[in-house]
Fold:
Amino acid sequence: MDSGDFAAVERRLQGAAFLDCRPVWYSSNYVHLARLTDREGELLAIYKPRDGETPLWDFPHGTLYRREVAAYRLDRVFGWGLVPPTVVREGPHGPGSLQLFVRHDPQRHYFVQREDPALWPQLQRLCIFDAIANNADRKGGHCLLDELGHIWAIDNGLCFHEHDKLRSVIWDWAGERIPPALYDEIVVGVTALTGDDARAEGVRELLSPREFEAISRRA
Structure:
């Protein structure tokens, strides 16, 4: 997906009509698989309503859906294409996040992906992304491998706490130097994040000032 594709999917997620909305089981919060339609056809998305969020002691209640969208927008700042297109959207159960559904084989999770050196550059980017976003809940099943060999990071609601909360299964490259090419990508992203880039403002508006400041510090 290039930048135009991401923007096009965002527009569809914002404008398509809900046809169906079914609960996804085995989740700590209310999660729904939504079927939507517009003039281009049907598409599937994951809808997480604000009012279905389970209260947590360390994250402000009713903010997880905004963090899902902020994670997508932060990923767009760095240009990595790790997080599926995600928008804030009013749905059948109130406002929430709506994320493009990624078709994948659930058996090819992170612990399988890491055995393939061809996937390491993507996984290393995800490792850096989670460190910057302060992801407190990166599980192996949150790394989806699509049929084209692209890895997508989902379930990003527990990100951006102002205090250190990093909890991740990705420890394979701990202590190693960041590869030069990836380091250059980080520098470009940090420049956009700390400047007046409109994409950075899209992240800022979804978080508290202290949370956004902490992103810049970690980056």
